[in-house]
Design goal:
157 residues, Aminopeptidase, 5-stranded mixed beta sheet, alpha+beta
């Protein structure tokens, strides 16, 4: 297994993984991610998004030229403060491992790599909005639910 930054050559595989993730969420959470959506159009839109939004750092685990796990990081710069050493905070999103590779420690290894990388980059913390099924995995990987996050929903959904 190789852990590396995602590249443009991975975009179609990443789009396929996002499609699978949406299908699983439809089953597990009774969502409607794929209703009325054309897969080809989605893959095209997803890959174009990645080409346009280079600010996302994509980390992948690869085996035999296949992306088997991926995580996206969006770093938010912090306004400098006196004696402040951290330069950013990070939002972790689109965390996904192909079903046949789950429960083998791959996601944990990938997350460890990301945490080490972000520490070197003077990142203060990583935050995530976990699904119900993933909370225990995040807890096993040193995430805690100690900060109250207030949000203001701007959508009508």
């Amino acid at each position: 297994m190789i852990i590396r930054f995602g590249e443009e050559k991975d975009y179609t595989q990443l789009a396929e993984m996002k499609w699978i993730h949406g299908a699983e969420d439809d089953i597990y959470y009774n969502e409607n991610n794929l209703d009325g959506v054309n897969k080809g159009e989605f893959v095209s839109r997803f890959t174009e998004f990645l080409r346009e939004h280079k600010e996302y750092e994509i980390f992948v685990a690869e085996e035999n030229n296949v992306v088997i796990s991926a995580m996206f990081v969006y770093r938010i710069p912090k306004v400098p403060k006196p004696n402040g050493h951290a330069e950013s905070i990070a939002y972790l999103t689109n965390v996904f491992t192909l079903k046949e590779y789950r429960n083998k420690g791959i996601g944990t290894k990938l997350l460890k790599y990301i945490k080490e990388y972000l520490t070197e980059q003077k990142c203060e913390l990583i935050f995530v909005f976990p699904s119900e099924k993933s909370i225990s995995w995040y807890e096993r990987n040193d995430f805690t639910n100690i900060n109250e996050v207030f949000e203001c929903d701007l959508t009508e959904e």
